[in-house]
Sequence to fold (305 residues):
Amino acid sequence: MINQLIQKIQKTKAPVCVGLDPMLSYIPDHVIKKAFDEYGETLEGAAEAIWQFNKAIIDSTWDLIPSVKPQIAMYEQFGIEGLKVYQKTVDYCQEKGLIVIGDAKRGDIGSTSAAYAVGHLGSVKIGSSVCSGFHTDMLTVNPYLGTDGVKPFVDVCRENDRGIFVLVKTSNPSSGEFQDRLIDGRPLYELVAEKVVEWGSESMDGSYSNVGAVVGATYPEMSRILRKLMPHTYFLVPGYGAQGGTAEDLRFCFNEDGLGAIVNSSRGIIAAYKKDTYAKFGPENFAEASRQAVIDMVADISSVL
Fold:
């Protein structure tokens, strides 16, 4: 799977991922009004607004990008209706030829992780039938429970040509409370990185492994260290833009060949019309603002590669 992602990155010349993390506050009033007029101020109405918002952004950006990353929590807050839209979004993006990275940060004891793995990445046997659940192409995974929690995902990746991104050094301000703790004189994130390399050796796909790593753009010196520790691991890089990460901060996430990382931007793209830079588009043309924001992001990142 990682090789498919790399091919799409090379084709688009855009090592970027659009985070489809919709909040109702991001959605223009005219989209919400239309959805509420049809379904009322209900979970169904909220889900319909999110779907129309997502679809418009996908339609405006799909030809510029290799991948998208829907954050499942933004859909789960609206219950089953929200999850239906999550599934519709996954399906629609795949129809457009995009690699879908499900941002669910799953990870639990072995049997539970196995259920998560088949639910999001694999298939489940139902009687004589074999059915797939969310069937995302890749998934974010929490390694806190160790190998027991990660190996089921690696097994499914190997069997179904899927991929995962394991949390190593995240972009949030409090990440250091655990991730930077010294264990035998070394920060925990380095030890997790070494396990990612070990797990990834079981699922190589060309020069890179299907087991990738989440490495935040907000800690560039740490990304330099992690790049050396994980030379054949693809990085999913959050934290660019709205969280403060700059293009210069991303430099160490990439290898010398310009590969090795894909950079995510969520509200910086999907809510671009709210920013002064793109105010000229207005709420009615929010999707066009998102397209321009993608173009600008690609140019910004390319300037340092």
User: Anything to note?
Assistant: The first strand starts at residue 16 and ends at 20. The two ends are 24 Å apart (CA to CA).
